[in-house]
């Protein structure tokens, strides 16, 4: 009887361990799908750093990761790689009379400078 109980406990432990691995794979797939590489000019809008693409006309909010400081690329044409996340509007966004906030934020993991200056201006 004791052996049966031990075998049942071990079996259920193995089943739980296997079922916990499945969501990790799903999370890894989602993380890979949220990786983006985008080219554009770094500008400022409502106090945030943004990446402005001319074609198609799109603006992405940029957040530096621990090792990347977005501010040092202000005014430059760059290629950024990072994780795409949905932005949540803040109270300051609704209080300003400027354009709507960027719906997508990129958590920047790397930056490649394409040109030290930008001639493109933000699309409004």
Order of helices and strands: HEEEEHE
Q: In percent, how much strand structure appears in the residues? A: 35-45%
Overall 3D shape: globular
Cα distance spanning the termini = 75 Å
Number of domains: 2
Radius of gyration, in Å, reads: 22 Å
Q: What is the helical fraction, as a range of percent?
A: 25-40%
Largest sheet, described in full?
A: 5 strands, mixed, barrel
Count of alpha/pi helices: 2
Strand order of the largest sheet: 1-2-3-5-4
Unreliable spans are 91-98
Structural class: alpha+beta
CATH class term of the largest domain = Mainly Beta
Would you count the extended β strands for me?
Answer: 5
CATH architecture of the largest domain: Beta Barrel
Which whole number gives the mean pLDDT? 74
Give short descriptive properties of this protein.
globular, 124 residues, OB fold (Dihydrolipoamide Acetyltransferase, E2P), 2 helices, 5 strands, alpha+beta, 37% strand
Textual characterization of the structure:
The chain is an alpha+beta fold. The chain has 2 domains: 1-33; 35-115, OB fold (Dihydrolipoamide Acetyltransferase, E2P) (Beta Barrel). The protein is 30% helix and 37% strand. It contains 2 helices and 5 strands; from the N terminus they run H-E-E-E-E-H-E. It is globular, with a radius of gyration of 22 Å. The termini are far apart. Mean pLDDT is 74; it is low at 91-98.
